[in-house]
Amino acid sequence: MPDTATGPEPRPARGESLWIAAGAAVLGVLLGGVAVLVGIQTAPPIAPVPADSSPAPVPVPALPPAAAAPVCDCPEASGPGGPSLVEAVEHTRDAVVTLTGADALGAGVLVDETGLVLTNYHVVAGQIREPRQRVLGGVTEAGGLAQQPVRARFVDGRELPAELLVADPDRDIALLRLLPADNAERFPFAARGRSHELRVGETVFAVGNPLGLEHSVAQGIVAAVNRTGLSRSRQTPLLQLDAAINLGNSGGPIFNLRGQLVGITTATLERAQGIAFAIPIDHIAALLEALRAGHGARSGQVGAEVAPDGALDDHARALGYANGLRVSRVLPGRPADAAGLRKDDLIVEAQGQRFDSFGTGPEAQLRLAHHFVSTVRGLLPGEVLNLTVVRGKNRLTFTIPVAAAPPDQQVLIDADALLGLRLDESRREPIVKELRPDAPISRSRGRELLRNARVSEIAGIPVESRDDLGPLLTELRQIGRFAAVQVGFVLADGRTLRVRDFPVSPD
């Protein structure tokens, strides 16, 4: 690890090194709160790094729709282990498989009759021979990425090989297909439920391979919904479960007592007991549908903007609220407009959570605004944004369908989310209008030099317009967070600067 040191103050003289003391989490350089140096200099550009500027949509099969009726006519449970649990297990166990390989141990669940299997990315990640290419989609032999075999074992002991179709490390989802000798074979599969209908306290059960004990069943309850900040994609909403989940349960299904698939087990807390998490099936279905539509790299948007202005009037305080975000703009024809959201509405709750815990003051409002924007961007097309707003004396609720950000907006979103650069919307050139206040680069010495600068390169690849910048940011977005990349700028006065280790922040 490089030593930490202090550098000279910024001096934009041509040919001299310019240093920015960055408080950023740069991969392999920064640990804890120690500051590191990020160099900006006018040295010759490094050799371009190859990048696929237009990743092809992944050929993702469609999941069957959510079941319209319960899978089994199970009587009401008389208590833990009652008859409804027994019958639900009997109706679902044949759809659960054990996944094995050289480095794989976990479970999966069949989600259609052709042999599609859902599991976690981390269950099969060790089978991919080229870890640097562990990015969303196209992880197949046909796509040029060799992989080691994964085998799926049924409850009766039968085994079949499986090929990997899609892998998303951010949301910890993988989709495989069984390869039977007879391609016409049909398999028992789990009926899809609706995870958004789950209630806190509702009984569910998990099936998996804890500590290698195959097809074990664990009963618990839904302890909470919409937990965020716990996965690599920090805005992925997770179900919190009160169930005996252990190593080997990963990738296994979560069922309700009607025998419907409502989630996929993903993680436990290392030092906790009886706390586990699952990815809601609605979120998984939305991800796969976004991939089918070619929107896998798109952020969610509803066509509304907010300002970090939480000034509450007497009506909002009378309703018991202590914090909120003011709607500053609603774009005509977008989902928020269609749902009835208006300029100057005060948003006080999102996805069932109040904003009061963020505190008050300018810094708290910035944190709240960034949290809210990240929440919306983290949603997938097909999901919904639930809002509570105060309008005059009234408290109103809105359910707004989320759409995929159009390509021209996605460039602005990615520049903001990944690099902390807010670009001028009115310009086709990528001109930095301002820095995002909470971005790592905004805490660096020399940051004022980047205002009104033009982004001229990413990783040695020239950038002339926002159209050039978009595909490069898409690549950067899929490679990972908390990394560093070389970014070049042309300053407002025409001089050229290059940040060799520009911090990439989490979105």
Kindly summarize this structure in a few lines:
The protein is an alpha+beta fold and 507 residues long. Helix content is 16%, strand content 31%.
General description of the model:
Residues 300-393 form the PDZ domain. The chain is an alpha+beta fold and 507 residues long. It folds into three domains: 18-53 and 407-504, Roll (Pdz3 Domain); 83-290, Thrombin, subunit H (Beta Barrel), CATH 2.40.10; 300-404, PDZ domain (Pdz3 Domain, Roll). Helices cover 16% and strands 31% of the residues. The protein is built from eight helices and 29 strands. The protein has helices at 83-92, 121-124, 281-292, 314-318, 335-339, 362-378, 407-419, 466-479, and strands spanning 18-22, 36-41, 96-100, 105-110, 116-119, 150-153, 159-168, 173-178, 191-192, 203-208, 216-227, 238-242, 253-256, 260-268, 276-280, 300-301, 304-307, 325-330, 346-350, 353-354, 384-391, 394-401, 403-404, 421-423, 432-435, 454-458, 461-462, 483-490, 496-504. The chain has a six-stranded antiparallel beta sheet, with helices on one face. A six-stranded antiparallel barrel has the order 3-4-5-8-7-6. A six-stranded antiparallel β-barrel has the order 10-11-12-15-14-13. Strand 10 and strand 11 form a beta hairpin. Helix 7 (407-419) crosses helix 8. The radius of gyration is 25 Å and the shape is globular. It starts with 17 loop residues before the first strand and ends with a strand.
